[in-house]
Amino acid sequence: MYSTSYLLLQATTAVAIGDALGVPVQFKDRAELLNKPLDQMIGHGFFDLPKGTWSDDTSLTLAALSSLSFGFNMHDMMMRFAQWYDFGQYTPFGRAFDIGRTTQAAILRFKHGTEPTKCGGNKESDNGNGALMRMMPLAFYMLSQNTPYKFNSVTANLCEQYTSITHRHPRALIASAIMANVTATIILNPNKYAMLRAIREVLEYYRNIPSFAGEIRLFEKFDDPNHYRTENGEVRSSGYVIDTLDSVFWCLMNSEKYNSAVKKAVNMGNDSDTIASITSMLSSMLYAPVSFPHEWLNALKGRTQIKWIVAMALQTEYF
């Protein structure tokens, strides 16, 4: 295992790189991207922003990392999300954009006095990937606070509280637990089959809890290696948590190095920024050590802000 300082900076930078690569091609059709694949940082696109600009995926990750640097306090975390939403903190240019509907509604509930862990949407339509995109800081936090690490009721409860501030449906809670456990497992044991075992651990845990048991069937394919023999065109890349997990894991299982995994993710189209952001984060640790392409890294906005937030976190007892 590489040092926490190395992996945390690398993973956080990777979140931003994947995000920035995906932002300009967000909502594009996959057929168009496969005909002319994206392999470099570009600007503009749907939001008409300079190349290297990252979106809510990175902003919420940075806000969560900043909050966890002071301990596990969901009121503090929601305050930081509100500061991002209202004032553009944790952004390259002081302006929040690409805010998910469920996350936006949760922040507004918090501002009107709702308890943080009750702010998340709990309808079936609230199963977007807005919590999934910010699970990496929690994985590092759990590793530092639960040694030796294993997925159990303690870690599951942390994942549920952390997710519930924006997404409370059982499906979203399971998806977030899978992402957190996969991330923590790859940090400790960077190989694809450990990743599949991490998925299975979460499913076995929630299968025995009545309020979650009915959701398990939707996730069972993810710990089966044969599932990832699916052709690219059959994998959906929407912001729905099941589709996002499918796209991310498909890109990882069908790649042998960092660059190829990220390029596959960016060119999935549709919710390309989140899929590329999560894929970039996981593959940066799965294939560690990696060297980010200079043209990607040099174009990335807000690098000083990213380094500063990571450095502050590493000075605390929580990372």
Automatic annotation (TrEMBL):
It holds the Pfam family ADP_ribosyl_GH. SUPFAM superfamilies: ADP-ribosylglycohydrolase. Keywords: Hydrolase, Magnesium, Metal-binding. Gene3D superfamilies: ADP-ribosylation/Crystallin J1. It comes from the Bacteria. Binds 2 magnesium ions per subunit. Mg(2+) binds at S55, D56, D57, D271, D273, T274. InterPro entries: ADP-ribosylglycohydrolase, Ribosyl_crysJ1, Ribosyl_crysJ1_sf. Its cofactor is Mg(2+). GO terms for molecular function: hydrolase activity; metal ion binding. Belongs to the ADP-ribosylglycohydrolase family. This is ADP-ribosylglycohydrolase. The lineage of its organism: Bacteria, Bacillati, Bacillota, Bacilli, Lactobacillales.
